[in-house]
Amino acid sequence: xxxxxxxxxxxxxxxxxxxxxxxxxxxxxxxxxxxxxxxxxxxxxxxxxxxxxxxxxxxxxxxxxxxxxxxxxxxxxxxxxxxxxxxxxxxxxxxxxxxxxxxxxxxxxxxxxxxxxxxxxxxxxxxxxxxxxxxxxxxxxxxxxxxxxxxxxxxxxxxxxxxxxxxxxxxxxxxxxxxxxxxxxxxxxxxxxxxxxxxxxxxxxxxxxxxxxxxxxxxxxxxxxxxxxxxxxxxxxxxxxxxxxxxxxxxxxxxxxxxxxxxxxxxxxxxxxxxxxxxxxxxxxxxxxxxxxxxxxxxxxxxxxxxxxxxxxxxxxxxxxxxxxxxxxxxxxxxxxxxxxxxxxxxxxxxxxxxxxxxxxxxxxxxxxxxxxxxxxxxxxxxxxxxxxxxxxxxxxxxxxxxxxxxxxxxxxxxxxxxxxxxxxxxxxxxxxxxxxxxxxxxxxxxxxxxxxxxxxxxxxxxxxxxxxxxxxxxxxxxxxxxxxxxxxxxxxxxxxxxxxxxxxxxxxxxxxxxxxxxxxxxxxxxxxxxxxxxxxxxxxxxxxxxxxxxxxxxxxx
Length: 558
Fold this sequence. Notes:
This protein is α/β, with parallel strands linked by helices. It has helices spanning 3-41, 46-63, 69-86, 96-112, 140-151, 163-167, 188-191, 193-201, 217-225, 238-252, 266-278, 292-299, 315-323, 342-350, 363-385, 395-411, 426-433, 435-452, 476-491, 521-537, and strands at residues 118-121, 132-136, 156-160, 176-180, 208-212, 230-233, 258-262, 282-286, 303-307, 309-310, 313-314, 333-337, 355-358, 416-423, 458-463, 466-472, 493-496, 501-502, 506-512, 543-545. The chain is globular and about 90 Å long. A five-stranded parallel beta sheet has the order 3-2-4-5-6, with helices on both faces. Strands 8-7-9-12-13 form a five-stranded parallel beta sheet, with helices on both faces. A five-stranded mixed beta sheet has the order 15-16-14-19-20, sandwiched between helices.
């Protein structure tokens, strides 16, 4: 099927979804009218109030996701009022007929001024090896909408209507479960939702995200106790949800923890190295403390395990010396010692250590402690070094990553590529659709980059709508192929920031250190930028090589 035919087919499918949802709204308004009549006859009927609460709950959860934000907010407000009445001993009457008129007015406003900040896809991600998501969602129309959105970011999605359908499946488990926390017909979920989900999810080891309409402490706590790592409130922000999913899956498949051991007991050091490497970590051992500063840049540790007492120097003194160097001052240090003197231990911690592991060392505790400290460091570095909108490295951090990679390649020959990437005609997007939609477009690039590229690659937002990639062990030819795939996927996305959907394209310039071995990191970056300039002035929506030579991928396919 051609791109045009595929785009038309998906567009027709999305239009059908929209019509189906509007038709369902008509049925839901009929139900609300029926419930209003019953409450006029008996305002205190618990069964009718429960049905009204459920109907408003469904409307509040789905309307906003489909772009009917006023309707969703109004339904949520009325749902909360019904919930309060249900808790009363003496039920007060509710003006449901008046509510229906207000909801209809909200729908008319949304329909006439519909400006959905969202996106559609004209290309599905049926690529082998794409991350697999299992979606458990009762609302079939909402589920299909979510599937379309998640496909656009390269996820394979399988839909289950409820917990019972999920339980019957015996296939290969997914990379992530995405679950509507009320996705069941069983009454047991009302009595004890935590026990219900624990029963159905006990055999899954993958990350679990819950969704729901309740924005409350209790809802989040229930999701956590049920085994969830996150909870997202409906109406769903699909861009943010996709970004969190991509980040979580990448974390599951992240780089091994880099651990440095400084220990003069050779046998103990080798034992610790063996235990940690068996757990998947990357470990370097130093038996001589004076060799530490010569090699620490090569190792670039995320954690240091260090004996408290070393020949001619203490571990606390080494910690104090490392603390004087900004780059290493935040690296966590765990002391290995049989020292029982509380005062000496306290002094060691004050000079820069983070924790003590008493000898003999428990292997399980060692592994857990190392992982938790590295995870904490990575989160700290992410907060400091990453752009909030895209999750990519900030300007200074991506330049530092490029410089580090260049220095590493000087010591140990290794090919790497530098890519400068830019959203075409981005100013027109902001001018036409507003900065909120512009931010959505930028965030979509960030999510696609983190989804498509490897954990070893360095990805940064250079500034505005411009991005920098440092692709490790990657030639320029390979980089061109990878970036062209990204370019094609991004061009297939249709954003909606007004009445008409629109798409954006990317231009890129590529260089590698293999073709320019004498260049500095800054020179390589400048060459990539010049190649980007060439791509822009050659018609945009293309990838060009720094030498100026066109490769097959340099031709526009837009």
